[in-house]
Each structure stands twice: as C-alpha cells, then as structure tokens.
Design brief:
nine-stranded antiparallel beta sheet, Lipocalin, 12 strands, three-stranded antiparallel beta sheet, mainly beta
Amino acid sequence: MTGTRKDGVIEVQYGDLHMFFVKEGMPVPDYAKHEANQETTEETESEPETTAAPVETEPVTSGVADGPYAWWSGDWYGWWVIRNGGGQFEDWVDSWWDACATIEVYDDSTGFIFLWDDSNEAGEGFCYADVTFGAGTTENGCMMSESGNFMGSDFGHADWIVDPGAAIVSQFENTICIDGEYVDPDNADDWFDYYIILRPWGTEWEDIRNADTTNLPYDDMMPLSYDS
C-alpha cells in the first residue's frame, strides 16, 4: 500500500485499488473523478458478457463532522525528531524537521493518517497508517495504529498508542505525541526512535514557547519554521 497527498486529496493505492480521501464539503478534483471512472470502465471492459452500463464510482469522502472522536479530524502541524538511533542513523540523533499531517475520522471509529515534512516533494509523505479510535485518559480518546508504513518500514497493531492525556506533552492542550521505532527493512542495524509532536492547524504555540520544559525531552519544543 502506498499513499500520496496532492491539493488536499489523499490517494492510497492498495494493489489495483485506488482510494481517494477528500475533506467533507470540499470539491472532488477532476483527476480523482477521472481515475475512479477509468477503473470502473476497465473492469467493465474485462467482462464483455455484461450489458449493464458502467457504474460511476465517487471517491470516498472523509471523516465525520460530529462524534466522540471528531477532535482528531483535520489538518495538524508540528515537528518530528530522531530521538535515538543506531547504524547509519547514529549521527542523525536529535535531527528534526517541520511536519504536517491530515487525520481522517470515520463514523465506525476507524481512520487514516498521512504525514509529510519539509524534506518531501509536493504530494509525497514519509508515513501513513490505518488507525482506530477508542477510550483514553481524556474526553478526546486515544488513537491506535492498525497498520502503516514509516519511510518504507511497515508497522502494525498498537505500535502507536496516541493518548493526549498520557503523553510527554500532556501538560499542553490540543497536543499529541506519536512515538515509535523505525528499523530499516534491509538492515536491522540501522534504526531510530522518533517523536512526532503535532497540534491542530492554526493553533498558537506561545504556551509551549513560554513553558517550563524541565521535564520535556528538549528545551526548545517549537517547530523549526514556526516564526518564519
């Protein structure tokens, strides 16, 4: 499974299946409609015995406007950092990048997250995951990974447990921390631990700038380009 993001649309390809995720209320781009119609036409041409007209398939729309986990749905901004590392990543420890994410929440308490940073080309990302939502230590609940890919390395069920009330940044409102481990699928000696710190898009960071960071992993917990 691979994923890309372009013009606010997330495209996920799983084998021959293409899925498009578009924010609710946003127009469906022409290229997404074309892709959906093209797949339907190809399926119809492969079955000449049927006389039914091709069914026009609309791309999947995202999220729920309301519900117990609506807080998670939307665009996020922050940064991610390599916390510890080995092999070729040993010299990358404490390197960090600005990061953005889009989280989709569906009415069956499942969802999808797509992340990219300032080193990615437009429409590309470094991580995506299918997730589920459940009870947590706050009213916003908890997000848990089910399957995903981080820089080419797969991860699975409960490798991420993202609970805003039980995170290293729990002292701040509207802040999540995703922590995990990357292991090079071709060489297990190359690995690193990472933190991804995110807040909903448009959130002010002055409370973090002025906070006592004594018990936090870094003195500076601000995104690199926040003041740019």
